[in-house]
Design brief:
2 copies of one chain form a homodimer. Chain A is of the alpha/beta class. Helices cover 35% and strands 27% of the residues of chain A. The complex binds adenosine-5'-triphosphate (ATP) (2 copies) and magnesium ion (2 copies).
Amino acid sequence: VIQFDKISKVYPMGEKSVEALQEISLEVEEGEFLSIMGPSGSGKSTLMNIIGCLTRPTSGQYILEGLDISRLSSDELAKVRNKKVGFIFQAFNLLPRMDALENVALPLVYAGCTSKRQRELSGEILTSVGLADRMNHHPNKLSGGEQQRVAIARALVNNPSIILADEPTGNLDTKTGEEIMRIFKDMRQQGKTIILVTHDQSKAELADRIVYLRDGRIL
Amino acid sequence: VIQFDKISKVYPMGEKSVEALQEISLEVEEGEFLSIMGPSGSGKSTLMNIIGCLTRPTSGQYILEGLDISRLSSDELAKVRNKKVGFIFQAFNLLPRMDALENVALPLVYAGCTSKRQRELSGEILTSVGLADRMNHHPNKLSGGEQQRVAIARALVNNPSIILADEPTGNLDTKTGEEIMRIFKDMRQQGKTIILVTHDQSKAELADRIVYLRDGRIL
Ligand SMILES: Nc1ncnc2c1ncn2[C@@H]1O[C@H](COP(=O)(O)OP(=O)(O)OP(=O)(O)O)[C@@H](O)[C@H]1O
Ligand SMILES: Nc1ncnc2c1ncn2[C@@H]1O[C@H](COP(=O)(O)OP(=O)(O)OP(=O)(O)O)[C@@H](O)[C@H]1O
Ligand SMILES: [Mg+2]
Ligand SMILES: [Mg+2]
């Protein structure tokens, strides 16, 4: 469902440039649970941002569910992304002016759900990540791990077929982290494709396969 | 050096309120390495923010190095904080318009260092956390773990006597995380007081003592 052929990403920085990814080739099957590990700065988030169609590669070919991403316009890319991909950002990226319930409902707004249905689905998933008592808190009135769980809930609420989770348990205690991993495993049982970036070996080993990145290359 | 006597913190939230800390009593000796663990939302960051004089308790007494914090004005509090405390925030709190070197130099600007000395000390500590090649990057051009290391460097650059680290290794791979813990252990050898919030048991066990929080209380 995801095919990378010699994907590279270069960030221009004045005279120097950063080669964050160097000729990455990778295939992910539908319904596979893949984990990505590697040192800080090795290119994991850059790889995830390209898979999630948030940034374009500098060179190489990316085929997502049969679609050649380089031939799609920004609008078409946004449509594919909103429909197929649930993205859990390493920095959460919650909207500060909305409370937890409204943040989680955003993908449902894009999908054209009624506001009643939005509240129901958002409330359900926030309860499943342990935040029933924090639905009306804005991000700045939530703890780090609570914000992380709102970001997880938002990514899963409209049942996407591909889940991209960039270090989703870094701010969570062991028990809460395991509850989140259980949710991912349930989604995988339903045939979803999951790609998990983590620094936690015990989480990575729940996947079908682990890919290691170092200095922008797959080891 | 740090004495809490029945410290409570209540966040008002409309009709309800959140009792984030409930009658916390705690003593930390000078030169002690204390670790704080507990579930997400249990009050760890709130406790650290009160220790670091960033927020005032709702009730109870806090004595920092013999000073009764409730009797200090905001200005006096800021002076104590800048001089004695190095704070590593869970959300990093880097300034987006400055590069890594300028962010790290901020405590030295407050302390009245020359700009030459600022660049020397900041450069040295950024190199010691592995970021020699990223000094001119702004936060939005750094990876999550690189931003975290800039936040660590900024907290340590002016050699504070108390280091408050709120989950400083959540975005770091195992090897980089261990390098950071080694820096903390060196500082402890020099007689600094270190308080570390972490969800990682292996990091917590490097401390002299572990305190567990649950629902705003010490177990
Ligand atoms: N400004 C605020 N207003 C209202 N509630 C708040 C505020 N800040 C924090 N809280 C609540 O207080 C509780 C304690 O928050 P705190 O950030 O101290 O937890 P924590 O132990 O650091 O959690 P984590 O491990 O997830 O970072 C949380 O349930 C949170 O929702
Ligand atoms: N916008 C940018 N401009 C320039 N360099 C960048 C930019 N974004 C990232 N980088 C650099 O590219 C490299 C890879 O970044 P990336 O965020 O993919 O790493 P990562 O593996 O996710 O790291 P971490 O585990 O710390 O989150 C880093 O060294 C970083 O400094
Ligand atoms: Mg990253
Ligand atoms: Mg916290």
